Amino acid sequence: MSLMITDECINCDVCEPECPNSAISQGEEIYEIDPNLCTQCVGHYDEPQCQQVCPVDCIPLDPSHQETQDELYQKYLRISGKA
């Protein structure tokens, strides 16, 4: 699954630079995660880095973008050009 940022986001700016896929960007009101780029850090780290640094715990799984670990890895390969 891709991750998402909820309305509890305080725009603290710590998640965006942690994303190895550049999936996080500033939206109109809060940061947003592009589900086409989010791999939950699969291929880079053992855990999603944005979740690790978020001070308000507002980055849950996005139920509208369900993916298996293998699908996330395949997405990582495509994004990184290693496919």
TrEMBL record:
Q: Which UniProt keywords apply?
A: 4Fe-4S, Electron transport, Iron, Iron-sulfur, Metal-binding, Repeat, Transport
Q: Does the keyword Magnesium apply?
A: no
Q: Which GO terms describe its cellular component?
A: cytoplasm
Keyword Electron transport belongs to the record: yes
Query: Pfam families given for it?
Result: Fer4_7
> One GO MF term, please?
4 iron, 4 sulfur cluster binding
The protein's matches in InterPro entries, at most eight in alphabetical order, are given as: 4Fe4S_Fe-S-bd, 4Fe4S_Fe_S_CS, PSI_iron-sulfur_center, YfhL-like
List, alphabetically, the Gene3D superfamilies matched.
3.30.70.20
Q: Where is the 4Fe-4S ferredoxin-type domain?
A: 1-29, 31-64
UniProt xrefs under PANTHER family = PHOTOSYSTEM I IRON-SULFUR CENTER, PHOTOSYSTEM I IRON-SULFUR CENTER-RELATED
What's this protein's name?
4Fe-4S dicluster domain-containing protein
State the species of origin.
Answer: Pseudogulbenkiania subflava DSM 22618
